[in-house]
Write a structure and sequence with these properties.
single chain, alpha/beta, DHBP synthase, Rossmann fold, 2 domains, 10-stranded mixed sheet, 4-stranded parallel sheet, 10 helices
Length: 329
């Protein structure tokens, strides 16, 4: 596990889950706010804590593929193929739900989202608990996800008594979600496992989402958002707008892809990693830092239009739509 999480910590956290309490824990993607997925009252506490709409489904985390049949009633061959390649790891699969899965977990749908995380703390907790843990990201609904235990405490304070501190998460953005409940596997949410990687394993293209595809976590147009108004634009336009806003007396924050910072007062500049994996790892921590900088606006230099950046572009587009907007700039 980690130096900061002991076997006793895991035992206590598992006991709290069994008692119907909430436990925040690290996965390789982001921190999750977990409840016993078989306990409707416990699951409802997640929605209350986050301020999450009741029809917005959760992801069930399990220890291994052996537990799949406890949560899904139909398991297509594609699921076994993808699980063998990508589990444990940052891939969520949507399946037809087992009749015993509570409506609170699925948002009332006939499908359930499942994954096997790879973080050692998450895996130890799942083994000790013995069941499924329903866990969305550990943050207030629609806001920037938590990638450290400090972020979780910042979001919830004492409202979540148990926070397992496994350090900063490895991936930094949420899992890829693939719907396997229909006629053909369909990408619902991009993540750092790319469509191309999934298609290579399946040996065929992913289907395009249809109007009746299941609702899943993180797919609202406005999501992952700081409270400070956020806008995306090309690099030259970032500098141009930063100059303009500073001349208007505004304090501007910039998430850039270059270290060449303009010599301006009232400018907070963060140079993000140039590679997609590094950028994703730091993204939410950077957005939180810029959100706390007391700025009037966050300007983000658009990432490349390349396959490995798909999930990052998705998160930034939703963050821009869900932030304070441009009216106050």
């Amino acid at each position: 596990m980690t130096d900061s999480v002991s076997d006793l910590d895991i035992t206590r956290a598992a006991a709290q889950l069994k008692a119907g309490e909430l436990v925040a824990f690290p996965t390789e993607t982001v921190y999750g706010l977990g409840a016993d997925a078989s306990n409707t009252d416990a699951v409802r506490k997640v929605f209350v804590a986050k301020g999450r709409p009741a029809d917005h489904p959760l992801i069930v985390h399990i220890a291994d593929t052996v537990q799949l049949s406890n949560w899904a009633r139909e398991i297509p061959h594609a699921v076994h193929t993808l699980a063998q390649k990508f589990w444990p790891g940052p891939l969520t699969l949507v399946l037809k739900r087992h009749p015993n899965v509570p409506d609170a977990v699925t948002g009332g749908q006939d499908t359930v989202a499942i994954r096997v995380p790879s973080h050692p703390v998450a895996r130890a907790l799942l083994r000790a608990f013995g069941g499924g843990i329903a866990a969305p990201s550990a943050n207030r609904f629609g806001r920037v996800s938590s990638t450290t235990a400090a972020h979780v405490r910042e979001e919830f304070g004492d409202a979540v008594a148990c926070v397992l501190d496994g350090g900063a998460t490895d991936v930094g953005i949420e899992s890829t979600i693939v719907d396997c409940s229909g006629a053909a596997p369909t990408l619902l949410r991009p993540g750092m496992i790319t469509p191309q990687q999934i298609e290579a394993v399946l040996g065929k293209p992913l289907a395009a989402p249809q109007a009746k595809t299941p609702r899943v976590s993180g797919m609202l147009d406005k999501h992952y958002a700081p409270q400070t108004p956020l806008m995306q634009m090309e690099g030259d336009l970032v500098v141009e707008l930063a100059h303009s806003l500073v001349r208007q007396g505004k304090h501007v924050a910039v998430l850039a892809r270059t270290k060449l910072q303009p010599l301006l007062d009232n400018l907070t500049w963060v140079a993000a990693p140039v590679d997609a994996a590094g950028y994703a790892h730091d993204l939410y921590a950077n957005l939180r830092a810029l959100d706390h900088a007391g700025c009037d606006a966050i300007l983000v230099e658009q990432p490349p239009d390349e396959a490995e950046w798909l999930a990052i572009r998705d998160r930034l587009n939703r963050a821009a739509a869900g932030s304070g907007g441009t009216e106050t700039i």
